[in-house]
Amino acid sequence: MPAYNLYMGCSVPANYPNYEASMLKVALALGMELEYMENVACCGSPNLRAIDYLGWLTVNARTLAIAEENGHDIVTPCNGCFASLKDTLHHLKHDESDMKKVNSELKKLGLTFKGTIKVRHFIEALYTDIGVEEIRKKVTNPLDGIGISIHYGCHLMRPADVTGFRPEILDELVSLTGATVIEYPIWKQCCGATVLPVNEPLAIRLARDKIKSMKEAGAAFAAVVCPACGNQLDLQQLGLKDSYGEVYDLPVLLYPQILALAMGMDESEIGLEMNRVPADTILDHLTS
Question: How confident is the model at residue 13 (pLDDT cuts 50, 70, 90)?
Fold first, then answer.
């Protein structure tokens, strides 16, 4: 049974128990041991990074150093946390000067960053450590080919040489549930979540463009793996009627919710009722 340091970040436990519940259910069924990290801080993405780069590096290096002490790689369900930890790991392993500065601060806490562990998104761990074929064996209630468009999220994919994430990973993981992945023109575009605090009209337009593109391509549902992206694409639909006079009714599901349903789990176990745009219509597309 593979074991991991589970770094939840702030957003998932505070706002998205449906993400946490579905992830834990799926992990348990697939034999993944997720050990909650204790005494760790917020990753600071993107705000701390913008105002105090060295402080941001130090906060994330502390989390990495804590994980190094028990020898397990870090897994996180949050794109922002993934990007912060992965970028910190990459930067410090390539910048000796900053690594010395960070370790000087960590020494006061009895910690040392060495750069000996990996950071992975939960879906990466599913794909690389469990594998598509093993997951497929657990799919007992597949979807009937219903069209699902994927929003991967900026922080999962950029910069590519740091994150190392291939979008094909999520394509395969969605497909093995029995769904059909629906491609759409602006799949790389930001959802606008991080723009929201500084330019709300622009953030709403970005979300609207994304949802509209998915819907016009033929998607019946959207899949996400980031709490901020999920919130943005789900929540903003409620206001699009006022802003644009448009109604899309595109349910936005977290990938572990989709996989859990395809594995035969009950909707009550994965918080399906918490989705703002009603998502229970996904149940009509389960084949058994």
Answer: very high
With 0-12 CB in 10 A as exposed, 13-18 as middle and 19+ as buried, what is 59?
Answer: buried
For 124, phi then psi, to 5°, come to -65, -45
- What is d(CA 234, CA 243) in angstroms, rounded to the nearest whole number? 15
pLDDT digits (tens, 9 = 90+) for 98-114: 999 999 999 999 999 99
pTM, entire model: 0.96
pLDDT digits (tens, 9 = 90+) for 114-146: 999 999 999 999 999 999 999 999 999 999 999
Q: Which tens digits make up the pLDDT trace of 226-251? A: 999 999 999 999 888 888 999 999 99
Contact between 119 and 74 (Cβ < 8 Å): yes
- Amino acid at position 82, single letter: F
> 3-121 maps to which CATH number?
1.20.1050.140
Q: Which CATH number fits domain 141-285: 3.60.40.10, 3.90.1150.10, 3.40.50.300, 3.40.50.11810?
A: 3.40.50.11810
Q: Minimal CA–CA distance to 84: which of 178, 156, 183, 191?
A: 156
Q: Give the number of C-alpha atoms closer than 13 A to the C-alpha of residue 48, restricted to the C-beta side.
A: 16
* Mean predicted confidence (pLDDT) in 172-194: 97
Q: Could you tell me the residue ranges of all domains in the chain? A: 3-121, 141-285
Q: Which two tokens stand for residue 152?
A: 């991967």
With a CB cutoff of 8 Å and minimum separation 6, the contacts of 267 are: 261, 273, 280, 283
